[in-house]
Amino acid sequence: MPSDQHPHIHTEIEPLGDTGHWARVTVSNPTRLNVLGTGLIGELTTTIRTLEPDRQLRCVVLRGAGDRAFIGGADIREMVGLDSATAQAFITGLHLACAAIRELPVPVIARIQGYCLGAGLEVAAACDLRVASDDAAFGMPEVNVGVPSVIEAALLPSLIGAGRARRLVYTGESISAADAERWGLVDRVVAGGDLDDATDAWVRAIGSAGPEAIRLQKSLIRQWEAMPLDEAIQAGVSCFARAYKTDEPRRLMQAFLDRKRH
Question: Environment class of residue 235 by beta-carbon count within 10 Å: exposed (0-12), middle (13-18) or buried (19+)?
Fold first, then answer.
């Protein structure tokens, strides 16, 4: 992993299957729990947007440098000097980073170890899947420093329910990885030493699926979030038909049938 002390976003491209690859994106500010200031937020947005046109990309793993934090929050040293106008610019920039993650056409997996607080939890909520070490801690402590939890905190009610979302944003308390899994805030919790293996298992599972099917599925899930049930079902019908505009269904179904014969 990168070891220099200057905050930056580090990207590694790894092969996946015969034709594709995946990206490991690391938020690197380890001496300060990978907190996000304006520069690092902009770099994260640019990094994700740069990956967007890559048709060979199958998925992305987002992680924090070191083992103390995924992202420990937004940079309070910067926020203490904001006024109303610069505060709006700052938080809009953070939203654009989260939006880039949500709009990336392939799944993004949050690999979470240590603290995942405030802006870190908003970034994690923007990801498609979340796997955490059993020592991870989750919280939305913004009210404790005089500001509300905003932007992608709006995803929390759909993830954990309105009551638990209110509990996090009103009290500023942190919860354990075990509670986060029980609430549905994270999808899997493993021992710290197993975190990479658990993440890699999801990467391989996504990589073994049809690339176009995965992209269609992510697009459809985004639509489901905003649609009434009847419209969501009809969007699925259209999405299913679109899959057959390539040879992927025929090819993968025939491969399945061929395996069954043997």
Answer: middle
Give a yes or no: residue 119 inside a domain. yes
Q: Which tokens belong to 156?
A: 């929390």
Q: Is 237 left (phi over 0), alpha (psi -120 to 50) or beta?
A: alpha
For 91-144, how does the pLDDT look when each residue is reduced to its tens digit (9 = 90+)? Answer: 999 999 999 999 999 999 999 999 999 999 999 999 999 999 999 999 999 999
Structural Rg of the chain based on CA atoms: 19
Residues 94 and 218 in one domain: no
Show the domain range for 219. Answer: 211-261
79 in a structural domain: yes
List phi, psi (to 5°) of 59: -165, 170
Q: Which of 208, 223, 250 is the last residue of a domain?
A: 208
Residues 93 and 201 in one domain: yes
The interaxial angle of helices 84-103 and 119-126, nearest 10 deg, is: 30
At 155-213, the pLDDT tens digits run 999 999 999 999 999 999 999 999 999 999 999 999 999 999 999 999 999 999 999 99
pTM over 0.85: yes
Number of structural domains (the chain) is: 2
Is position 1 within any domain? no
